Amino acid sequence: MTPIPGWYPDPADxxxxxxxxxxxxxxxxxxxxxxxxxxxxxxxxxxPPAPTAPTAPTPQTGWTPGWTPPSSGGSGSGASDTGTPETxxxxxxxxxxxNPPKTPTPGPNTPxxxxxxxxxxxxxxxxxxxxxxxxxxxxxxxxxxxxxxxxxxxxxxxxxxxxxxxxxxxPxxxxxxAQGQPGWPAGQGGAPGASGKPRWGQPxxxxxxxxxxxxxxxxxxxxxxxxxxxxxxxxLRVLARVIDVVAVFLLCLIVNGYFYLQFAEEIGPNINxxxxxxxxxxxxxxxxxxxxxxxxxxxWFAYEVPATANSGxxxxxxxxxxxxxxxxxxxxxTFGQSIxxxxxxxxxxxxxxxxxxxxxxxxxxxxxxxxRPGRQCLHxxxxxxxxxxxxxxxxxxxxEAKAEKSDR
Length: 408
What we know:
Elements: E1 6-10, E2 13-20, E3 25-31, E4 83-84, E5 88-89, E6 214-216, E7 223-225, H1 234-267, H2 271-275, H3 283-310, H4 315-320, E8 322-326, H5 335-346, H6 350-353, H7 358-366, H8 378-381, E9 385-389, H9 398-407
Antiparallel strand pairs: 1-2, 2-3, 4-5, 6-7, 8-9
């Protein structure tokens, strides 16, 4: 049975009494010895809410989905960025850099630059980061309005602005990220390709076709005609090379003869084991081998390079009546060109590269068999030289040669 409404001892604290209304306890407890009022206790008013300290606004780095613009107009109608009691704390200005807005596709309802937008305020301009009456703020959409960066048949969101006012999120003049932004059209804000230059370097130069009977000068697009009637026959070139090899070999016997004997005495007792790889050269034999090698290369250089630079003729070429000249002016090679030509001839030789250089040496010497029209070996191509008959291109007189060297 439910007790009738009245004052009863509080079950939670027997020393106090409270009013029971038939369903729940009401009011504050009173001491048991106190005389309660005749009816239920008066309803106490709710305590006033505790004052809350204002919080500092959080800096915004983009659009805030829950932000609503103030009801007043733009900067021209008295709008302010300081906030009002209705709108809350002031919204900090958004940065003026970032990714550029998407360019809207022109359509029948798309307003052009400077044209008033339907639903936009007539008086007052809209500044960066603020919106006028009838527009929808960043991140929110309404009837007949569009979100950020798009344009529709109504008002426009941030990112589409009139003349003289940069859109929200667009990089301003001199702002970081104003140049090289992806998506910007050419010529605006220093976008890629605005200068007209390719991003990954210039395309390769297309060389013009080589006319028949011409040879191309390396490093240029210039071509020179070749008079094939002046070229030396291949047989004479081979004979001249054989004579030169024999001449260098005889020089080596004279200069290196002593070292050849010392080397033979050093390896003589163990030559069979050394040839089959069971033993290696001793320290003294290795030293003599290097001496012979350096002297051989030096003798070859002294035999070939100065003679080629002087008249274009080594001993073998002088005997068979041929000489080396430059394609561009039919003159002898310079000393530097003679060195480069000899290096290409010497480096792959078996004396330097041993057995691995033999195929390269053969390819170099045989290249003239199929090369046309100059019949050049690889060492000739390195300096754009050709080998001609001395009767067709005679060696210049000493006075002319001295004048030519003085001009160099």
